[in-house]
Write a structure and sequence with these properties.
mainly alpha; Methane Monooxygenase Hydroxylase, Chain G, domain 1
Length: 91
């Protein structure tokens, strides 16, 4: 039996991102946000920083990484919208 992926592996980030999207689709934004946040933390850890020329594979990977961030932004916006609606009802 093989070992599982390390907690900071990109496959883990992908699974977390999919779970966060599922929670968002079900309207469970409070559950989606911390999971999406963790996925973004993992991906951020793997991003290369610098101005060195990038290979075609690196550019493709960078484009794929955008998905994690756009998903996180959508979930964070849904949470913020829920908070705005809750605050509006209190007045």
């Amino acid at each position: 039996m093989g070992k599982g992926a390390r907690p900071d592996h990109l496959d883990v980030a992908n699974g977390l991102n999919n779970l966060a999207r599922l929670y968002l689709a079900e309207g469970q934004v409070d559950r989606a946000l911390p999971i999406s946040t963790r996925a973004v933390e993992i991906v951020t850890k793997h991003l290369s920083i610098g101005s060195a020329p990038r290979s075609g594979a690196a550019v493709t990977e960078q484009r794929q990484d955008r998905f994690y961030f756009t998903n996180y932004i959508a979930i964070a916006d849904a949470v913020a919208g829920r908070l705005r609606n809750t605050a509006g009802r209190q007045w």
